[in-house]
Specification:
about 280 residues; mainly alpha; MetI-like fold; globular
């Protein structure tokens, strides 16, 4: 009986902490919606408003009239999807090479990949812009997609997962049956590590969707803006209409919330699967 009471007490505190954590995580989104339904004066009022207003559709219409926001959402969806899919496949391929293939300089090259994670993103902006300018990709969406198709973290993630999941005996048996290295990766290794690759692709999708610095530097035309740059375009140089800005931010957040509702359970399962196997 004492043990059961102790377990029930732990469960009660656990659920209480989870509820508080959920409220803390969801409150910024709720506050964003409140401001998106009111105006700047209401957003700065003390005590703050906690009830949504009735001005959301008017402000959303202003967002659509001020900038090509629908096109910006489509641009963000294209860029984020391409980057997410590219990272899922290319990082898995690189991780497979580092984990299961033997070649000269493998450890040194993997160390170089890891060292790139220590370099701040801001330091790579200038050389990256010079390369994009030399290729003639300034003000194009491929300037956003190509640099993000692989990441050092993604390669490390997939290398660790493949090392812990794929047995060398399985690869040797496939080679005895006449399978090439590409066939071993695509038909044997990748299906096994697909949950981890899916999680990595979702991380890449969210990161690309929320990216602001690089699109702000390389994009010039309004019809090629991503969602984050379109939100920036809602602001002028002198003041910020918080209601208008929050309306655009809320519209840009809805696709991510919908994505998490659809694949959230699979994403958490993939993270836990990698945690237990790694």
């Amino acid at each position: 009986m004492r043990t059961r009471r102790r377990i029930d007490r732990v469960r009660w505190w656990t659920y209480a902490l989870l509820v508080l954590a959920a409220v803390a995580c969801l409150f910024p989104l709720y506050w964003m919606f409140i401001v998106a339904t009111t105006d700047t004066a209401t957003a700065t009022r003390m005590p703050p408003e906690v009830v949504p207003g009735d001005n959301f559709f008017h402000l959303a219409g202003l967002v659509l009239d001020t900038v090509p926001f629908v096109q910006s959402l489509l641009n963000s969806a294209f860029v984020a999807t391409a980057i997410g899919a590219g990272q899922a496949v290319l990082c898995a391929l690189a991780g497979f090479a580092f984990a299961k293939l033997t070649f000269r300089g493998r450890n040194a090259l993997f160390l170089v990949v890891l060292l790139t994670m220590t370099v701040p993103t801001q330091l790579s902006v200038i050389p990256q812009y010079m390369i994009v300018s030399w290729l003639g990709w300034v003000d194009t969406l491929q300037a956003l997609v190509v640099p993000g198709l692989a990441s050092a973290f993604g390669i490390f993630w997939m290398r660790q997962h493949i090392s812990a999941t794929i047995d060398d005996e399985l690869m040797q048996a496939a080679r005895i049956d006449g399978a090439s290295t590409w066939q071993i990766f695509w038909r044997i290794a990748f299906p096994i590590v697909r949950p981890a690759a899916l999680v990595l692709g979702l991380f890449g999708f969210v990161t690309a969707w929320n990216d602001f610095l690089w699109p702000f530097i390389v994009l010039k035309s309004p019809e090629r803006y991503t969602a984050q740059i379109a939100i920036k375009a809602l602001q002028n140089s002198y003041d910020i209409d918080l209601g208008l800005a929050m309306s655009g931010s809320f519209l840009a957040t809805v696709p991510l919330v919908a994505l998490f509702v659809v694949v959230g359970r699979r994403m958490v399962a993939g993270i836990l699967d990698g945690a237990f196997k790694g």
